[in-house]
Amino acid sequence: MTIQERDVRGVLRRVTDDLVGPPTLLDDVRRGGRRRLRRRRAVLAAVCAVVVAVPVGGALHLADGGAVAEVASPLFDGPTRGDLAGDGRYLRQVRQAWRDGAGDTGSDVEGDPHVVWAGNTPAGPAAYVAQRATATGEVWEPAGERMIGYAAFVEPTADGPRVMTRETVTDAGSYGSWQAALLGPRRDVLVVLDAGKPVEFSPTFRYAADGRIERTFQRVKFRDGAAVLSVPPQRDRVTVALVRKPVSATTAVHIANAHDILLPDRQASPQRSVTYTLPGAERVWGDSPAAQVGRNVYGTEALAAYVDPGGMHREGESPHLVVYGATPDGRQLLLESHQYDDDPTRAIALLAHAGAPFQPVASGFIDWNAPLPVRLRLPDGQGVLVAAEGAALSYRVGAGEWHDAGRGAALLPADATEVRVTATGGTASTVRVDS
Question: Where are the transmembrane segments (predicted)?
């Protein structure tokens, strides 16, 4: 018996009838191969989420067959909060803007849109709106949650209220993604919704001399459903951060339009990757170092000090440099470069005995215009790690003979004093590495 295409399509339709994709799924797929936003990569690379969970107090009732019959939640049923809650004219404008911008979700909602919060801000009147959905199947992500509605911020414009990107609301019991939005032509007003949980705010960050991230956080003070904060202009980069305690990259409160600020054209090229595997690395790494890094570095807090907790960034234009090696005492050696936006690139060297956690042991900034962009001295006399893309490298100790060190990257002996760097064009430079 031959299986016909129409039979396969019929089966697929039947088994996926109750699955509901987020309304922004198509845009997300189109963006898939383009430059990522970096909030963490495992811990360092992140993308804006498209699903928000219903805040505290919700109740979900399932009818026979598992269909959702009733959803009660402050997001849909609570009184409108904010100092414009009694402004009927503004609330009507907001609801009309919501209906006018419904797009593909217009036939997938029921009841009236509910204005959760409406208030004055230095940028003008703003609001947050939610509406129940008629399709209530499982969402793609997070797995196991069911979609029950849509929500979005409404920002002020010269032409009146404008609904920002809508997100999917699920039946989860904790508040998830877009809880804040940047407003105004300078994006210097930050509105943060009160979801019943403490939130910490930081207006900007700085780099320590070794490339670690430093931020100072303060408690957000909510009033009548939201907080309105004045922040530095965020027109082409996002320096602010919002997190819940404990402060970490995984407790970030996402900002609804951060993606639009960071990637306005959504056509940026992916970051170029440069990888070197040093001689002898296979003794400690085996055949799949990248898989080990994904599990033992990105899946841990090894790089936590170099992550911007709660911050959102785009990848830089500089190459992503990775070096795998082995130290003289048999430890795994990893060098990773990380760049936020157009900031200087940072290089972090990590070491680990087989099966033990990786620990950062040396770090600093990369000067891509220097003859030797990377020069990090490892502890315990394990050598000096150097890198210069494509260049031929050699070293010597004192006034001794020059020794070939390969091309691109090398782990030099701890007593090496000078490196000769010969670029691909033939230009040679000598750099001291004994300090």
Answer: 42-63
d(CA 350, CA 359): 5
Residue by residue, what is the 3-state secondary structure of 88-149?
Answer: HHHHHHHHHHHHHCCHHHHHHECCCCEEEEEECCCCCCEEEEEEEECCCCEECCCCCCEEEE
List, as one string, the DSSP characters of 140-180. Answer: SSSTT-BEEEEEEEEE--TTS-EE---EEEE--SS--SEEE
- Per-residue pLDDT tens for 265-275? 766 567 899 99
pLDDT digits (tens, 9 = 90+) for 331-349: 999 999 999 999 999 999 9
Query: Which of 195, 181, 61, 209 lies closest to 124 in space, CA to CA?
Result: 181
Structure pTM? Answer: 0.79
Cα 166 vs. chain centroid, distance in angstroms? 19
- Which token pair is 235? 């027109």
Read off the pLDDT of residues 120-168 as tens digits, 9 standing for 90 and up: 999 999 999 999 988 766 655 556 678 888 999 999 999 999 999 998 8
Maximum Cα–Cα distance across the chain:
85
